[in-house]
Give the backbone structure.
Amino acid sequence: MPVEYTERGMLKYTKKLIERFKNPKNVGEIENPTVVATEGDPTCGDMFKMFLKIENGRIEDVKFLSFGCAANIATGDMTADLIKGKTVEEAGKLQIKEIADGLGGLPAIKMHCATLAYRTLKKALTKYKQKQAGGAQARPKG
Amino acid sequence: MPVEYTERGMLKYTKKLIERFKNPKNVGEIENPTVVATEGDPTCGDMFKMFLKIENGRIEDVKFLSFGCAANIATGDMTADLIKGKTVEEAGKLQIKEIADGLGGLPAIKMHCATLAYRTLKKALTKYKQKQAGGAQARPKG
Amino acid sequence: MRAYLDNGATTPVAKEVVETMLPYFTERFGHPTFLYSLGQEAADAVDQSQKTIARTINAKSGEILFTSSATEANDIALRGVVYANRKRGNHIITTKIENPSILRTCERLEGEGFKIDYLPVDGEGFVDVSKLKEKLNDKTILVSVANVNDEIGTIEPVEEIGKLLRDQKEKIYFHVNAAAGYARVPFDVEQIGADLVSLSAHKIHGPKGVGALYIREGTPVEPVSYGYISLFKLKPGTENIPGIVGLAKAAELAFDGFERHTNHMKKLRDKLISGFERVPYSVINGPRGDKRSPANASCSFKGLEGESMLMHLDLNGISVATGSACSTTKLEPSHVLTAIGVKPEVAHGTIRFTLSRYNTEEEIDYTLEVVPRVVEQLRKISPVKPEEL
Amino acid sequence: MRAYLDNGATTPVAKEVVETMLPYFTERFGHPTFLYSLGQEAADAVDQSQKTIARTINAKSGEILFTSSATEANDIALRGVVYANRKRGNHIITTKIENPSILRTCERLEGEGFKIDYLPVDGEGFVDVSKLKEKLNDKTILVSVANVNDEIGTIEPVEEIGKLLRDQKEKIYFHVNAAAGYARVPFDVEQIGADLVSLSAHKIHGPKGVGALYIREGTPVEPVSYGYISLFKLKPGTENIPGIVGLAKAAELAFDGFERHTNHMKKLRDKLISGFERVPYSVINGPRGDKRSPANASCSFKGLEGESMLMHLDLNGISVATGSACSTTKLEPSHVLTAIGVKPEVAHGTIRFTLSRYNTEEEIDYTLEVVPRVVEQLRKISPVKPEEL
Ligand SMILES: Cc1ncc(COP(=O)(O)O)c(C=O)c1O
Ligand SMILES: Cc1ncc(COP(=O)(O)O)c(C=O)c1O
């Protein structure tokens, strides 16, 4: 932009985002989750922990814990909504843009929040696949 | 001043000055003056012309014409008041400060106006003395 | 009766502008960079104000920077652009009749090694575009010309200049100081090809303490001041939110009915000018008709001195400026009048009358009644004969 | 219920201030440099405002320059003084916990070849004057320290620093950024030995867009901006007259009953602090008691992140700032909290509450009811355990 804004300038959340931040539907923990993944670091000011309950390759439940800004919470909640009920394969196709779009858009400086939720999901799915593979390998062996 | 004002800054006239500017008592010309003197230059934006009627070494009447700012007119008028009725010798002792004081003070950047009136007076008195001296010399010779 | 005819110096703030500003003092007072709702309201206000100003000059809203005055906008424009383009060249072209806010920055830049050409103007104050063309060289990085001269109302051929500059091989940035011209003459940054445009709120019935700088997208501008950055990198410090909102409202009012306002001013201006022409030994400065700002009438009354005239008019309730709006207390005659060839002894007797949409015909009639009287009065006590000048 | 507790960021303009400003928009709107009566009124207003501000800090009225913000005042003070004293030396001393308006100007000056020492502070944010003494050398020309830290409220030993500097053989100029401290703690330029002091109107219930810089008589300061000079050489451009009048009125209101106001704030501050101490895993930042600004309470709530907390408080009608008032959107923790040794994971959970004389006990009670609830709520959904930090 010609008239340069700062990093801070014009930070503005959509109504949708604020609504989700206020009333997230998916916060919390799942007892005996199929898989758990954490990304981020409290020293950086954002951390995201995702719990998945997967049955027959389908994500039956998603919960998350968040240490972070409003966008962190809202993107986490959005991500959870977007993958709930989907197969692992379908969930693996989720795009960062879908998360942002689901919230009516994200300020540029907050895109990293969507990225964090996305990375946590990827990590969880990878873990799940490794677990499946491990289990699959394990069974023949065991 | 530490917080420097410009040349223009805080130019302010006293009530006395403005009153004199509004209603100068001594503007005009004297018919058959004893002596006339002009100082200043219209190209510089101020010019002052003084008419003196001197009888028996006493200034019986003073008038002036002014091309200049409000301070020019007011200082001229003040100067006229200050010397009217005085002897030429007394008038010769007039100080610039008296002119300014008579107006309740002058902005620093307007002191040159008092100086102009003062210089015109000096010139007129010198002319008068020269004239007297010339006359005195002339008589014996004549 | 009163007649405020110094709208070129500053204007009263319009009632609607004050009303628009008020809630931003006491209710919507948040800091625009803060996330909570009060802060967002302030940020939205800045956003909206950018949009409003942008619309009036056919710019994009992100191209509007808010400053504390047109002076500051000019300083950011000139120094900001030449510092950012120092590597490409060090040559600047402006004119002999620019506002001191331009000329003093130029002086400073000369001290820093920049080369500046000050274009002469003709007897009506017009810049000759062919002379500008001759001065262009491969070191030229910036041209700065006001669209309207603040002293004598000349409307400069900025469109022609813009076209010339766009035709050059290397980019030459074009700054237009529109402080005197904004809301008086139409302004379209695309049509003119301006890269930077300065405005001032207090010249259009907005508040003092706010200006704006249009900066065309992609124009490199280096900051010239530093510190806590709230919204804009080029103007650090917390934004004057009520002021910005006031500027936008003032612009809205001025452009809402632009034709009507300017026609009204033109009528009053022409009435003033014809009136002055009937005063003996008077000279109108600047052009007539369409090439003159609707808001400006400048007249030299021979044989008298402007300040005395100003003071007498003030005693009669009429506010005006002397010839040089910016050197009231200097003995030198206005640099603008000198540039158009007015002799100093005449220049000293110059009065500038500047109008706004709020002036009335009655005020003009009254002025035309008072002026000849005061002129006569002052000439009577003057040692200088007007017929000899 | 609403509670505005971000008075360190900006304040609502006091009703009396708005009323005082109003006539300067529409009636006394003249340009201060013009000789006619309207202009004189404006100039008088500037004069009177200088006097008022001067009185509050024991200065002379001619020593007060008006600017468009404390940021601008800081920039003029720092760059102005070091440019003017460049020949004598190139060394500046400041602290690690200054406001960004100081630090960014310092960054710039480093780029221009000046050497800057940033003093460390102790766990409560205090500068160690003996460390400052060690850094002094024969190239030192300027020391800049805020009298009150804007994030954690530490009242710095500026009097001691001033004394040390006055004891040096060569003159070392002393700048005090009082944007956060003005009208919160007493300030006497003579007692402190300050040569330059920055203030901001919008932090004391005055309008945005105005600041002031005290410049001790005889202090050489080079201009850092250029252009049309109205009254002040160091701040070109037409003055923000209503803003200046507003700043003066705001100062008058704040100092008229200074003790009462500050005692009121202290009471509320201490109530807040004790309330926060009862929240588990909370840490108060900065000192307690007399060495803390009456207006500041800063608390880190472990296991949660400040922005979420800020947003939840806003949803409850409470406006606050996160730990670093100036980096809401950066991921780095506040440089001030880092400097006093707060671990980043704790710093991220910091909220700054800043008071004004208009806050009420009910607002504080309400805040102390909401805060623990929000803290609990956020900790419940956090993957970070406060007890592990
Ligand atoms: C200590 C300090 N200095 C400077 C500033 C900047 O002041 P202004 O908003 O007037 O530019 C602030 C406000 O954020 C501050 O708290
Ligand atoms: C052409 C022009 N440029 C710049 C300025 C200065 O504007 P401001 O008062 O906003 O600094 C003025 C006003 O005097 C002007 O007429």
Remarks:
- Residues C 8, 69-71, 99, 101, 146, 150, 177, 179-180, 200, 211; D 228, 237-238 surround pyridoxal-5'-phosphate (ligand 2) (CB under 6 Å).
- The interface with chain B takes residues 33, 35, 40, 43-44, 47, 62-65, 215-219, 229-234 of chain D (CB under 8 Å).
- Residues 15-255 of chain D form a domain with the Aspartate Aminotransferase; domain 2 fold (CATH 3.40.640.10).
- The first strand of chain D starts at residue 3 and ends at 4.
